[in-house]
Design goal:
Shape: globular
Bound molecules: zinc ion
Strand content: 15-25%
Order of helices and strands: HEHEHEHEEEEHHHEEE
Radius of gyration: 18 Å
Number of helices: 7
Helix content: 25-40%
Distance between the termini: 20 Å
Length: 239
């Protein structure tokens, strides 16, 4: 199966990251969001492969508050979100927050998933590496969910995802979707804890970043909506 066939089969509706950013920008601009009146928060894996999407979002919306952690988990917590909320511009007594968050996966030219060919490397490596490491532990039956002080983020990732895995033999696509769903749930929970919809509008865009051959990146859009003046607007279709 080729890259294109694997993406079409598992992630229908995927588009280039440039198109994704342009589409979400246009949708929010129509609802009154702009670079001048909003703050953007970007959740993504620490992996350098995720950076081009972050830079496109910076270009569209200005400097973003960084929510990066391994596999894109929402480890910034209530304190991190409160900081981001506190940094937003106030225009006519109203604030606007834009949250983007992504889990990610590499897909090779031959359609193999979970693999990326990185610049200067002769062999493919795993993407997302944090999820691949957890998957290996599951397959080997050696999962230890204790908190490791030398490995906070992977420990938290393990604890967050393990209860959500129903399959005895999950693959990396399964785990990437589970990571996305956990990330979205945590994002919405933290927004509910820190955002006052009476004085602020906000938007949530989540999805899965796909790293393809020739360093080309794509986005499979999942959840996309905005809450403006307390009214919910469904935006881009999920897939
Ligand atoms: Zn990763």
């Amino acid at each position: 199966m080729s890259f294109k066939e694997t993406v079409a089969h598992h992630f229908p509706g995927t588009r280039s990251e440039l198109m994704y950013v342009a589409q979400t920008y246009d949708q929010l601009e129509a609802l009154g969001f702009s670079a001048e009146n909003s703050i953007t928060c970007v959740g993504r894996c620490r992996d350098e492969l995720t950076r081009p999407l972050k830079l496109l979002l910076h270009h569209a919306w200005g400097a973003a508050f960084e929510l990066a952690s391994l596999a894109g988990m929402m480890n910034a917590g209530r304190t991190g979100f409160a900081a981001a909320i506190g940094h937003a511009p106030t225009v006519f007594d109203r604030r606007r927050y834009i949250f983007y968050a992504f889990s990610h996966i590499g897909i090779a030219a031959d359609g193999s998933f979970g693999l990326s060919l990185r610049p200067g490397q002769p062999e493919h490596t795993t993407t997302c590496g944090a999820l691949a490491a957890l998957l290996m532990e599951i397959h080997d039956g050696r999962v230890d969910d204790a908190l490791d002080e030398a490995d906070w983020e992977q420990s938290l990732l393990r604890r967050r995802l393990l209860p959500l895995i129903n399959s005895a033999e999950p693959d990396l696509i399964d785990l990437t979707r589970i990571a996305h769903d956990a990330m979205l749930e945590d994002l919405e929970h933290l927004v509910a804890l820190t955002v006052d919809p009476g004085s602020a509008d906000y938007a949530i865009f989540t999805g899965i970043q796909i790293h393809g051959p020739q360093s080309k990146n794509y986005v499979w859009p999942a959840t996309s909506y905005a809450l403006v003046d307390g009214k919910r607007h469904s935006l881009m279709p999920g897939s």
